[in-house]
Amino acid sequence: xxxxxxxxxxxxxxxxxxxxxxxxxxxxxxxxxxxxxxxxxxxxxxxxxxxxxxxxxxxxxxxxxxxxxxxxxxxxxxxxxxxxxxxxxxxxxxxxxxxxxxxxxxxxxxxxxxxxxxxxxxxxxxxxxxxxxxxxxxxxxxxxxxxxxxxxxxxxxxxxxxxxxxxxxxxxxxxxxxxxxxxxxxxxxxxxxxxxxxxxxxxxxxxxxxxxxxxxxxxxxxxxxxxxxxxxxxxxxxxxxxxxxxxxxxxxxxxx
Amino acid sequence: xxxxxxxxxxxxxxxxxxxxxxxxxxxxxxxxxxxxxxxxxxxxxxxxxxxxxxxxxxxxxxxxxxxxxxxxxxxxxxxxxxxxxxxxxxxxxxxxxxxxxxxxxxxxxxxxxxxxxxxxxxxxxxxxxxxxxxxxxxxxxxxxxxxxxxxxxxxxxxxxxxxxxxxxxxxxxxxxxxxxxxxxxxxxxxxxxxxxxxxxxxxxxxxxxxxxxxxxxxxxxxxxxxxxxxxxxxxxxxxxxxxxxxxxxxxxxxxxxxxxxxxxxxxxxxxxxxxxxxxxxxxxxxxxxxxxxxxxxxxxxxxxxxxxxxxxxxxxxxxxxxxxxxxxxxxxxxxxxxxxxxxxxxxxxxxxxxxxxxxxxxxxxxxxxxxxxxxxxxxxxxxxxxxxxxxxxxxxxxxxxxxxxxxxxxxxxxxxxxxxxxxxxxxxxxx
Lengths: 256, 431
Description:
The structure holds two protein chains of two kinds. Chain A has a single domain (5-189), classed as HUPs (Rossmann fold, 3-Layer(aba) Sandwich). By secondary structure, chain A is an alpha/beta fold. In chain A, helix 3 (76-86) crosses helix 4. In chain A, the strands form two sheets. A nine-stranded mixed β-sheet of chain A has the order 9-8-7-10-6-1-4-5-11, sandwiched between helices. In chain A, strands 2-3 form a two-stranded antiparallel ribbon. Chain A has eight helices and 13 strands. Chain B is of the alpha/beta class. Chain B has three domains: 7-87, no CATH class; 94-266, Rossmann fold; 289-427, TPP-binding domain (Rossmann fold). Helices cover 26% and strands 23% of the residues of chain B. Chain B is built from 13 helices and 23 strands. Chain B has helices spanning 19-26, 33-38, 81-87, 117-132, 152-155, 173-187, 201-212, 310-320, 328-332, 363-368, 385-389, 398-412, 424-427, and strands at residues 7-9, 15-17, 43-45, 51-53, 60-61, 67-68, 94-95, 102-106, 137-144, 159-163, 191-195, 217-223, 227-232, 237-242, 246-249, 261-262, 265-266, 279-285, 299-303, 323-326, 353-357, 374-379, 392-395. Chain B has a nine-stranded mixed β-sheet with strand order 14-13-12-15-11-8-9-10-17, sandwiched between helices. In chain B, strands 20-19-21-22-23 form a five-stranded parallel β-sheet. A two-stranded antiparallel sheet of chain B has the order 1-2. In chain B, a hairpin with a 5-residue loop joins strand 1 (7-9) and strand 2 (15-17). Chain B is flat. Chains A and B meet through helix 4, strand 7, strand 9, strand 12 and strand 13 of A and helix 7, strand 12, strand 14, strand 18 and strand 22 of B. Strand 9 (145-151) of chain A pairs antiparallel with strand 18 of chain B.
């Protein structure tokens, strides 16, 4: 049984230059899709079919892409859910958060709700798909992983812990056929009222001293930064010293 | 001012001061000075004309119950009388919400069963929001599974919903969202606040928003009752909008509660109907510590110039299950790869425990480990900077201590995985 995997991609934004680029997490989603089904992967985008950035995804080795032609002000979720309902799909891969627009990260959740599928957030890898069930590794903080199994079909958002997207070949991207599909969408009414501006740098939290008396204020002003030299072990035997280190490691629960 | 006469200890143990008498006692030119100073001394002119002093009336009982005589007549430096009293536990005023008009629900991450600083900030933010809204609101915290936190009252939790049971243990986002939906119908909260974090807050908030059909504000960093400002477009855009019901808040966006205590009254949730989960948790996977990026590794064993036996160092790091790091010298000498370098020109690490073996601590290296919580140093030089910075330092040769540590780790059975080799570029030392 061949899997039917769809990767949803968006137009990214380079964090420093601000130029449009292949979005990092979406690129990883395409990479994961290519790992699962190779060239049978279908890649879907809602937006402008003439956007040159889409060729960067195609340059990863995709023979074709599907673009649901829409204006920027249109809500992508209903169009996508309609599109995904038409076909028999096993796995939908997205990034965690888009690099443009609202970047709320809600698309996989809304699609899953609309389709009635489970959603798996922050996937680092899909290890195997067998008998209609996928073994998935989730990315946890500090490089840890959690193993989860989920029945097909499902939607997964791909974390930046997943394998990095392969280099995009320019000529391959040019040769790929981009299939533009007309679709009917609605304007995102809620978003019209929002005011958007360039991001201001967030104020740093100030260290406020809530002292009520002069003595407390004096103490706060003259206090040395806490934490002088810790325990120093000099004359103990090596065994005792190693034991002390090991006990501290156990106490901090870094040794399990 | 521990003057004899100005202090009176009432039956409740409250020290009553007479500021006027203290003021007179400080001023030697005051006409009443001698009266005030000699008040407690109890000197009496005896029948023969001699001045008699009653020794039992001299002095006062100090805070520890020991009799003190103030021979400086109140002119001495202030003793720790006052400070001592304040050091004893301060009972903060209790914030009471008897009949709340509305609820604000916070779903803290509870990393490791305890409120993180992010959670506490959001609880504080919830109180700030509540203060800006009409009526009397109560802040509800929803906790799942095993909770070790004991100070919910000081963090600002007015009402607590604690859901326990096997269905909420471990990684169970679906059951948790089902419970949250139930709570939503029961309490109809004005706002839901989630930490926008990788510890599960974002996931839970997004799931709830999808199932309630609400449009949440994510990556919010300014939240007031009317307006919320969120980051958009990969952090390059500020979106100002009306505050929706579900808000996911970034770190450091509110001030934690520190001046009030709260009731922490439990709220029970009506019987829950949890459907069978689609996601089946198989627990955490053992990760090769050297696969974890150095910047986010939890436990790093770092090597410097003091290492002579590199094979032993690699074995020890493997036996302890630690990620390997290195100082600049070890990298420049070709013993470790460049991407393992810790410090200003290498990686800035955030490890919780950092074991520095044979690193004396150049300032560039100390910058790189600025965010580490616990630092352990193994060094032959007791005066080096690393020893000054560390919580536990062992002054000895690294070879000896590492071999002892390896033995301890093997006895403890840290590494049950039989054939976990170092990654090839590590074992070859990248000469």
